[in-house]
Amino acid sequence: MLWAGSYMLDFFRQKGLTSIVYGAIVIGMVLVFVLGFNPSAGKKLGSVNEACVARVKGSCIEPKAHRAAYRLIFARGTGGMKQSTASRVVLEGLIERELLVEDAARLGLTVSEDEITDSIFHGLVRLSVPSDNVMLSRNLGIDDGRIMMPFTDPKTKQFDLKTYERIVKQYTGRSPKEFREWQSRELLAAKVRDLVRVPVRVADSEAFDRYVEERTNASVNYVVVRRSWLEKYAIAESAKDIDAWAKDKVNLAQVKVPVRHILIAFGGTKDEDKAAAKKKAEDILDRVKKGEDFAKLAKEFSADPGSKDNGGQYPGEAVENFVAPFQKAVASVKPGELVADLVETQFGYHIIKRDDASKDDIAKTYKQNRSLELSKQVAQKIANDIKSGVSGDDAVKAAIAQYGVLKPPAPKAATANPADAGAAGADAGQAATPEAPPSADTDPERPQFLSSSAFNRRGTPIPGLSGEAAESVTQFAFRAKPSDVSDPIRGDDGFVVVKLKERTPATRADFDKERDLYKADMLAAKQAEALAFYVRRLREAAKGEVKVDEANMFGAKTDAGPQEEDEGP
Known about the structure:
Number of helices: 19
Shape: flat
Structural class: alpha+beta
Mean pLDDT: 84
Oligomer: single chain
């Protein structure tokens, strides 16, 4: 007690706080911190019967500790993240912390009572967010694993004991003693993180090379051959061709039609629960095969709230978001067919059927299928023409003349609304003059020879292009020689042809202007990478000694639908 009181008095004198008011604060803080002292704060072990969200090498992460961390980390909301996902993020951070605390013992690192007191006095609260997600920490406002808490009196702007106790209880649900123990472990983990990051360096030459790579700009000419344009102007809806195409089972399976299913959930974890669910599902499947109405059976028996009231139906486009066994079963049958056997997933047993395909469904899929092949063919022709010396504009005009031969049907004349008749005296019911439909060479979706803005390796080369297509264009732009022309690149809606227009390297003078800030950002990124690698090594070494109990986790997922993504709290 005398030691702690002497430390606190010295601390306040250093800050120039010698008034009677702050003397009272000193006494109060000494009582709290000394009474709250726990010699085993760095060796918190869970008993065999203790409820734990996770056990890490024998150390127990309690549900209340997990919830307290969640409250602080996501105090401003989850930003659209599912609650179950956010809860998992918090748990991963706590597991990482415990591994680092364990490693601190190996390294001989400790945290003194003075360090804990000093951190709390300055309103610094330490939190552990997974080290492999630096962007998440930044978005949450957690700077270097720390947030600021207002442990100060609103009037004096100085540390206030009652304010501290109230805020700790309000935000974390922990007592001052528990909060102090929590922060001791966080500080110890932070010391290990610092030990990993400090040796990392960035050489000037390394920074310059990276700067040139990242800041060199390129621009391209490009042509997008869209499937949607070809479907309007190049592909005729020939009944003979469509029928021949639809005779192929593989082709017919691609037709997007609604999918129906009946889910019979397991109802428990015991073998007999699973067996009972399977027997119930088999009986329903037998009734479907005998001709009973699928939709009525789904409404009566299905455990999937997302489709039950709609006769078990989901749009065909939704299937790509479902779990793999469900997707595989749907792909195995043609429209109008029933999957012959039960399909088992983690949610239970599914009875699955595809709705019948209409002629319009089949024709639409035929044109989409045909347009993919044709868009590559047209793009290749444009690329070959440009490579042979034809200008980009002329190559595009030739392609439009050759392939844009169909005329889309004219829009039906709209009936004018009498209330909208203008001063021209349009009579009620007079037919409005339809707008002239676009033609193959005026349609906004037609192939055009365009120029991009300048972009770097991290930029967007072509508006509307994403994913692998954008990456392929970028790679070509920074690898090709001036005037080189690419082969067709698969895009989001067809194929793209690219011609390098210009590439402008970054200079030493450019680098010198940004050197300090650029090197600081690069150093932070390298330090984060080193720490993430270090933690991965710890996780790998402790793989068999980290046990998570989902039942004790705040916001644990309990849904029973066929979709893969989180369904929310």
